[in-house]
Each structure stands twice: as structure tokens, then as C-alpha cells.
Amino acid sequence: MKIKALAAVILTVALVSACGDNGDDQADDQTQTEVWAGGVCSAAGDWLAAITDAQATLADTGNLSADTISSTFDGVVAATDTLVSDLSDLGKPGTEAGDEASDQLSTLSSQLDEQKAAIAAATDQSAGSLPDLLSQISTVTGAVAAMLTDVSTTVGNLRNLDGADELKTAFEDSSACQDLSASASAQ
Asked: Which of 185 and 36 is assigned the larger pLDDT?
């Protein structure tokens, strides 16, 4: 799925670049903004899928083992690293609200890194007993809940930036954002 999304983004960027001299800069800017919004939503959607899988694994207490828990925690950290990297790679959209949007993503990246550090600190300690293990699970699930809130808040903030009509339209028109909204609503 990620390869298909990347291929679609590359194709769209190539088409926008090829059409750059057609005098329709506003349409090109909107297409580039939609690609940017789609990148935000695609990265958030991939992360949300990984987090949802981790939550399902941790909720299946009958099949939990120390190895399963450890690998689930590692998966959350890896998915968060990927999200932070993907958001950083997007840069800023070419809109009036581009700087504000970039600042929102930078703030989100910092928030995610903070929660990832909380997960790492909790899981770096050996869970020698059941209470220790339950404490780790509690810390991780709390950090994941905070991350979900931070991602949701940031996407909402991006849609509502002052002077961000182009961004709002791009988020509404992007299929990746529509998929993310549907996925988040189902949670």
C-alpha cells in the first residue's frame, strides 16, 4: 500500500512538473498542495494502522507474552519514527499558510518524539514481574493515547489555519485524507 501511495505521489509530482509552464500556476499550486495534504494524511494513516494493530495485540491478553509485548512496543517506536521522518520530508506547502502548516508539523514531531521517549524509557527497564510489565503497558498505552490526540489535533489545526482555504480544500479533496477521516471515525 505504501509503495502504491508513493508511486501515486511521484506520478502526481511529475505531472505537475511537466505542466508547470502552462500558465495555470494556481491550479498547479492547488495540485501541489493536495499532494502535500495527501502526504500528511498518508503518513498519519500508516502510523494509525500500526498503532491500531499494536492496540489490538495488547488488548488480546490471552495471547500476550513478554516477546509479543516487546515487539509491539518496538513497532510503535518504529512507526512513530517513520511518521516523524515522513512529516519532516514533506517540507511546507506553497500556500499563504505554508509557514504555519510547517510549524504545526514541527510541533507534532516534537510531541511524538516526547511520547516515543516515554515509551523507550518505560520499555528499557526489565519487566521482572507482572506488576512491572503492567506498568510498562500502562505507560505505553498512555503515550499512544497522547500521540493519537496530538495527530488528530494537528490534522484539525491544519484544516483550520487562518488563510488556509487552499489547505482546507486540499485536505477535503485528498483521497488519503478521506481514508484517514473514515479510519479515525471508525476508531
From this structure: 36
